[in-house]
Specification:
This protein is 40% helix and 24% strand. Bound molecules: glycyl-adenosine-5'-phosphate.
């Protein structure tokens, strides 16, 4: 099945099974804004808990805060967002559609990579075990041609971004003969900068309203609380402050479902360190964050690092952790070395001294910062994409199953009485009453047992417990495992232990620490 079709299926599965709904749907929706449904919110909360615990439980020197969305507007001037938080936009004159110029070029580079990958896959099939991929890539004329085209375009692109050269960005689009996906034409406007921050007015007009921004990142709430946390928590460098919260960006191109939203959620951690130690900490946090992603078991090959072509105005090193979505490898998390830019800027704009006295060095300095910044919604999408499977069963029927990491699954177990009578529903209720304190349970008595299994597969429930007539005699139930569909007869007293063994968040956390 084409990846585009897989993606469409994932989007409709999310809606049909109560994970994600378009916002304001009865009013025909609101562009790039989504609501999470009854299962979506559970999955999202589990992701957030996993991240929060991995930061604040596994690191004694990382503490959390929850700062306000509204902040003093001077913060965004100091951070550089008022002047520099822009995307380069370009319009197609025929379709009247607006695009990000950098995304058009990135998509073009990805298409060249796809063509190369196809050649490699074809050759691998033809030569079988004797295939030497490195040799093939270094000698095949077609692959070399693609590589040269890519390298040249990429070098021009990186330079244009770093020089903020909008004319050159347009020229790359023209030279690469990139067409508008809607009109198919190459009738492009100039490239212009577009600020992504939303603003609103605070206070009534008669009092003199103040223009405030909806925060485009949660990080600034951490920076402006650096001294509060450091002093009240008696924190010693190195230490980190973590935060989860909403962020808002007026994205030009809002597509690909919850990948690029105008209202989304971030999980950010600012790690304050001594100046000069940033590269060491940058590498450590890169590896730690990659382990967090891989621990979820979606496949190590689905992740890769991608160093930034253009460094943000505050960074001296930056990399993305990308996940292979159905529409290609895409950024899920950024790890940035932000130097002392933010704290210094806030010191300058607020007039307050923001420094740390290091008792070991016996001197004061402005700490440097390593930031890990991850989008909850993008992790959500990576987990759903990586877990979605369509399978044909031995009996010829098919099933759609979400093979979610058990610790993150919205519902951990379903208890299903074989029939709706003979005391089986009551027995099922007793089992739920024993387990509900530890796990989110669901009771289902409607339809055949096969249909009920299918419904639980579709929302990713790792365990189904069937109560039958023998249960009343032997106090045993059948436990069915989602991924293998294997069934085992087990004693009710053992259920808690069996289920906890797999769904406990501790299992994931232990994988990160090794
Ligand atoms: N504080 C740094 C910062 O905000 P960023 O790379 O702009 O860096 C960090 O954003 C993460 O936030 C991204 O890796 C992505 O997961 C998420 N994110 C950014 N824009 C988003 C959007 N429009 N929709 C969903 N997630 C987004």
């Amino acid at each position: 099945m084409a990846q585009e079709d897989v993606f469409k299926k994932i989007v409709s599965h999310c809606k049909e099974y109560g994970f994600v709904f378009p916002s304001s749907e009865i009013y025909d929706g609101l562009g790039a804004v989504y609501d999470y449904g009854q299962y979506g919110v559970e999955l999202k909360n589990n992701i957030k808990k996993y991240w929060w615990d991995s930061m604040t439980l596994l690191h004694e020197n990382v503490v959390g805060i929850d700062s306000a969305i509204f902040m003093h507007p001077a913060i965004w001037k100091a951070s550089g967002h008022v002047d520099a938080f822009n995307d380069p936009l370009i319009d197609n004159k025929d379709s009247k559609k607006r695009y990000r110029a950098d995304v058009l070029i990135e998509d073009y580079l990805a298409r060249i990579d796809e063509k190369t990958a196809k050649e490699v896959a074809k050759a691998a099939k033809r030569f079988g075990d004797a295939f030497d991929e490195t040799q093939f890539r270094n000698t095949n004329p077609r692959v070399l041609e693609y590589q040269q085209e890519r390298d040249e375009a990429h070098a021009r692109f990186a330079k244009a971004l770093n020089d903020s050269n909008l004319e050159e960005l347009r020229q790359i689009i023209v030279d690469a003969e990139i067409v508008c996906p809607i009109s198919g034409s190459r009738n492009w406007t100039e490239v212009r900068q577009f600020n992504l921050m939303f603003s609103t007015d605070m206070g009534s007009t008669s009092e003199g309203a103040m223009k405030v921004y909806l925060r485009p990142e949660t990080a600034q709430g951490i920076f402006v609380n650096f001294l509060n946390v450091q002093k009240t928590g008696r924190m010693k460098i190195p230490f980190g402050i973590a935060q989860i919260g909403k962020a808002f960006r007026n994205e030009i191109v809002a597509r690909q479902f919850i990948f690029r939203m105008r209202e989304f959620e971030q999980m950010e951690m600012q790690f304050f360190i001594r100046p000069g130690e940033e590269m060491e900490w940058f590498d450590r946090w890169k590896e730690t964050r990659m382990r967090w992603h891989k621990s979820m078991g979606l496949g190590d090959g689905k992740y890769r690092f991608h160093d930034h072509d253009k460094l943000a105005h505050y960074a001296n090193a930056a990399t993305d952790i990308e996940f292979e979505m159905p529409f290609g490898f895409k950024e899920v998390e950024g790890v940035h070395s932000r130097t002392d830019f933010d704290l210094s800027q806030h010191e300058k704009y607020s007039g307050r001294k923001i420094q740390y006295f290091d008792p070991e060095l016996n001197k004061s300095y402005t700490p440097y910062v390593i930031e890990t910044s991850i989008g909850v919604d993008r992790v959500f999408l990576s987990i759903i994409s990586g877990s979605y499977c369509e399978e044909t069963l031995d009996n010829g029927e098919s099933r759609v199953v979400l093979k979610l990491p058990p610790a993150l699954a919205p519902v951990k177990l379903a208890v299903l009485p074989l029939v709706k009578k003979d005391g089986l529903p009551e027995k099922a209720g007793e089992i739920i009453d024993r387990l509900r304190f530890d796990f989110r349970c669901q009771y289902d008595e409607k339809d055949s047992i096969g249909k009920r299994y299918r419904r639980q597969d579709a929302i990713g429930t790792p365990y189904c417990i069937t109560v039958d007539h023998d249960t009343l005699e032997d106090n045993c139930v059948t436990i069915r495992f989602r991924d293998t569909m294997k069934q085992e007869r087990v004693c009710i007293d053992k259920l808690n232990e069996i289920i906890a063994g797999k769904v406990n968040m501790k299992n994931l956390l232990k994988k990160i620490t090794g």
